[in-house]
Amino acid sequence: MKRLKLNNSLFVKFLFVSFVFILLTLSTIIFAQTGEQSFQTPRIYVDITSPGQKKLQVIFTYSGSGSEEIRRYLERDIDVYSIFSPLFTSTALSIDDARLVGAVLYVKYATGYEGDNIKAELEVYSTETSSKILTRTLYARKDEAYMIAHRIADIVYELITGKKGFLGREIVAVRKVGNINEIFVIDPGTRTMRRVLYSTNPILSPAFSPDRTKIVFSMMVKGDFDIYELELATGRYKKVCSTPGPDSTPVYSPDGTKIAFTGYSGSEGGIFICDPKNGHVTPLIVERGVINTSPTWSPDGTKIAYVSNRAGRPQIYIYDFSTHRSMRVSHGRYDVDPDWSPDGEKIAYSSMEGGWILKVYFLKTGNMIVLGNGEDPSFSYNSDYIVYIKGGSLFIRFLYGNFESRILTGNWQNPYWR
Length: 418
Description:
Blueprint: E1 2-3, H1 10-27, E2 56-64, H2 67-81, E3 84-89, H3 95-100, E4 105-114, E5 117-126, E6 131-141, H4 146-161, E7 171-177, E8 180-186, E9 193-199, E10 203-208, E11 214-221, E12 224-231, E13 237-241, E14 248-252, E15 259-265, E16 268-274, E17 281-286, E18 292-297, E19 303-308, E20 315-320, E21 325-328, E22 335-340, E23 346-352, E24 356-362, E25 368-373, E26 375-379, E27 385-390, E28 393-398, E29 404-408, E30 412-416
Parallel strand pairs: 1-3, 2-3, 2-4
Antiparallel strand pairs: 4-5, 5-6, 7-8, 7-30, 8-9, 10-11, 11-12, 12-13, 14-15, 15-16, 16-17, 18-19, 19-20, 20-21, 22-23, 23-24, 24-25, 26-27, 27-28, 28-29
């Protein structure tokens, strides 16, 4: 991350612009309120999915009380998006200055305190059209200035791509330390986390409910794994689903009324559907001598992707509720951990090929891409990023370029985002 802080003299300003040009050439709130209606379409569009896409240059200038604090948060937020090459300065620039150094956007924000709140006046300019394309007034509590930084970063992302940002969505994951198992909710921008469950019992596979008020997970109690549901507001949890064998990998349906999970009918492991209100369990995909596991719902709730070894080795399949048939979509040596993207167009999964690697299957074309090393992927809200595990650390990766950010180190397992 590059940061420059200069005085306001014309001479120094000239040196700044010249230096940035050389540098870029060589290196190539609890609430947030706005002063205008949300934009519906991007004012600038860059195809971030094109092969070989380079990082996009954005200049940020800032001023006022609290602006440095927001700048520090914003640097992390922009870093986690990983597709931007940002420059931060407290020196005001012109649009021509920003264009000269190759920036696609020029972002200005001025901040000040109003009682217990911090206020930011945001302006965004297009260097292509030399025009102001957005103004916003953002508010947050003084102790939650990071919310303004999140909103600015999300606005920049949406202006350039036409897609909503992901910094308003937290990640849930399990951290294991010795014999202690903990569920944490993680802010991907600030890299801060809050613990929502602590136990000496093994815990697996937490997942948010669609309204993000609950977390479903698998926990071993008295030697048996069952499915539990945690209310985030109270911290209370209860068992909601159970079969005679170990139960794992639970995930809510898109409408939140059902839970799909891996359970057992006799000695046969398979996919089951549970009503969390009454605990009623119905078998969905159970086959003699076959292990079916790790369900993930399509966004419209009409299909489930899952893992099956019916062909000998674990592969990814899609079950259609209307036809009651399954279709195989992966052909690796050992494919597991599927996650269906919120836009319905992709399935990410882990594949063992001398080590764990990440793959993404595109349903419309049938194409598959390899992202790199890692396992246990989960999509972001906008379907352009995944969170995953590599070497025990949590990473976030952009799907369409070799850009990734390490969020947290440690012994992490089973992240869920969306």
